[in-house]
Design brief:
This protein is α/β, with parallel strands linked by helices and 283 residues long. It folds into 2 domains: 198 residues, P-loop containing nucleotide triphosphate hydrolases (Rossmann fold), CATH 3.40.50.300; 62 residues, Alpha-Beta Plaits (2-Layer Sandwich). The protein has 10 helices and 11 strands. Strand 6 and strand 7 form a beta hairpin. Helix 1 crosses helix 10 and helix 4 packs parallel to helix 5. The chain starts with a strand and ends with a helix. The structure holds iron/sulfur cluster (2 copies).
């Protein structure tokens, strides 16, 4: 069962829900938690420090042999990302624009383009307990190909049991990549006008991808009518409500998990996992 935790904006408590859900489910099942928020991964902060296994994520970028280049311009015309400019005496390459598509090497009629490997990030794996692993994708500073790091993190995390992926906030390409292959998406929201607006954006993405969703209302002050109305009108189940509560904030602030310190919350998160499974027809 692959669940993605997403939200239309940052700061809704998405990572908190992902970490609690994964920890609670791991008390009886195998769980791999994947931090796909590769520009700012933070799930490791909820767990004790350890010595993770780490691998580089590399992409193939072009390298130009000026002695073979005829300055025909085919590569620059092909490149849809503006990463190549043919100057008087050489091809100028701007790696920050390159999407590593490999097209320039394919179209070069002179065999002047070869590919070299460039590291853009890392994937680390932590074995937190017999049943719980945390896989973290991290994009190197200044790099833009977060999608490739997410893809590699998910590949490393592909194991039996639950897969809980924490997406980056918003609705951009990294979120779509994280959602790809998910059985279910939990959308985390707050009952404010901005929260509903961003929930609508996130829901539009999951609808396009055909992924079933449920909603968790976080920091609820009990006045959730507008969110519930939004969900009712679209047939979206509200699967859990987490209150606006000083104790919850202080547990989180200390880097702990409410499901780890309170058995009631552990059961609630286990029930949330069960509700996700039931929503896609599992048992
Ligand atoms: S690999 Fe693709 S994106 Fe990069 S420079 Fe070549 S054509 Fe452009
Ligand atoms: S396609 Fe090949 S030969 Fe033509 S400009 Fe690019 S590198 Fe040079």
């Amino acid at each position: 069962m692959k669940i993605t935790i997403a939200s239309g904006k940052g700061g809704t408590g998405k990572s908190m829900v992902a970490a609690n859900l994964a920890w609670a489910l791991s008390q009886s099942d195998r769980v791999t938690l994947v931090d796909c928020d590769v520009e700012e991964p933070n799930l490791h902060l909820f767990f004790p420090p350890d010595d993770p296994e780490s691998t580089d994520v590399q992409v193939s970028i072009p390298s130009f042999d000026n002695s073979r280049c005829t300055l025909c311009g085919d590569c620059a015309r092909f490149c849809a990302f503006g990463a190549l400019v043919v100057a008087k005496d050489r091809v100028l390459f701007f790696p920050e624009h390159c999407h590593a598509c490999g097209g320039c090497a394919l179209v070069c009629p002179a065999g002047a383009v070869t590919e070299i490997q460039r590291p853009i990030g890392t994937v680390t794996t932590r074995h937190l307990s017999a049943h719980l692993s945390l896989v973290t994708g991290t994009l190197n500073e200044g790099e833009v190909l977060g999608v490739k790091v997410i893809r590699e993190a998910k590949r490393c995390a592909a194991k039996p049991g639950w897969l809980v992926c924490d997406a980056s906030p918003g609705t951009s390409c990294p979120v779509v990549e994280t959602l790809h292959g998910s059985d279910f998406c939990l959308l985390i929201t707050e009952s404010t006008p901005f929260g509903i607006h961003d929930l609508e954006l996130a829901y539009s993405v999951t609808s396009c991808l055909g992924i079933p969703v449920g909603v968790v209302i976080n920091r609820s002050d009990g006045k959730d009518e507008d969110v519930r109305k939004f969900c009712n009108e679209r047939g979206i189940p509200v699967l859990a409500t987490i209150p606006f509560d000083r104790w919850i904030a202080s547990v989180q602030g200390s880097g702990d998990l409410i499901s780890r310190v309170d058995p009631t919350w552990k059961e609630r998160f286990i029930a949330l996992g069960g509700a996700c499974r039931s929503s896609v027809g599992g048992t």
